[in-house]
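seq:
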Amino acid sequence: MNGIIFNIQNFCIHDGDGIRTCVFLKGCPLRCIWCHNPESLEKTPTLSFNKQKCSSCGRCLAGCSARTTENGILKINREECMKCGKCTEICLNDANEVIGNEMAASKVLDEVIKDKIFYDTSGGGLTVTGGEPSYQPEFTLELLALAKDAGISVAIETCGIGSREFYEKAVALGTTFLYDIKCIDPERHRKLTGSDNAHIISNLLYLMDEGADIIIRMPLIPDCNDSDEDIALLAYFLNKNKAQYRYAEIMPYHTLGIGKSEKIGINSPYVHESASDADISRWCSLFASHGTEVRVST
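struct:
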């Protein structure tokens, strides 16, 4: 089966145990206002244009109805762009990139298995992330199964929005779940992500009941989902279910998504400096005040 991926990253050490290869899939049904990977939101390929690299030479204008110049500045009509990739081939400055390509699960595994010696010596493996792996469920499950057959441990980073059937099949494969909790309050979750979280929490409780290997991840975003009340609700949930997950970690906000948004022609709905040391210290202190142990993702 084929899937749409946008990156295969080797030697990752922050997305599960040991040394891992992360496979990033395209497509996500949520629209978190702070999204760190906005290029992954659409399942189809996305054109990224780095205007800082563009010299306005005009080479990419030939035969492209989506491109014009205005006062010597290149303009792109993204609604007309066919993502054909010709601009990436002709550009002398590498200003253009089509993000996302179709690959068979078996071909992805061929890339992943090259580093098996590092997985075996470090306790690592494959992590499927994105985007949202459950948004390409058949492809993700096939890739996980192929990896398991090859003796590679598997994990997925998920927002929990997928179907119950997807998580049932994933847990049957012995998958580790890096499970995002973005906000406990349903209305705030909807405001921040575009979706209610009832199904997300339900899937997490199901995985807990099944005894799945779960690492809870909490993206904390300054002045967004990090109020005293937000953290108190998170701490209550973690304390209530502390025997049913391995550990919980804070994922501090960083600004990489802002530049990526600009390159793909969208306005980032949340613009803020990266989380400061003071922000992180405050979060940790608040969790500690509730008797909740958390880690901080680096």
